[in-house]
Amino acid sequence: MAADGQSVRGLIRSPRLQALHRELCDPRLSEHSIGALAVKRCFTDASYLNHHFHATYGMAPSDVRRRSSRGPRLPRLIRANIAELKSSSQLGQRGSLLLI
């Protein structure tokens, strides 16, 4: 056991999970399958990967990939205000905000 109570396996697995998480969030790697990225990080058992990934990040690798592909989300209040502005006359014909 390591000094912080983490097993040797955990010490080895943790940086591999972190690297995989970074790669799943990287839009430049979106053409690579999750399986291919996982194998690159020495995760050859999907069940093992899903269990430890979910335990670490609270979601499946596919959920991380899906969320990162949407890009940053605007806060709900800003989205509501934009929708309201779109329906009002404060937006120009091309959808740009008119400064008054």
Automatic annotation (TrEMBL):
Signal peptide: none annotated. Transmembrane segments: none annotated. One of its GO terms (molecular function) is DNA-binding transcription factor activity. Residues 1-67 form the HTH araC/xylS-type domain. Keywords: Transcription, Transcription regulation. Gene3D superfamilies: Homeodomain-like. This is HTH araC/xylS-type domain-containing protein. It comes from Rhodococcus wratislaviensis NBRC 100605. The lineage of its organism: Bacteria, Bacillati, Actinomycetota, Actinomycetes, Mycobacteriales.
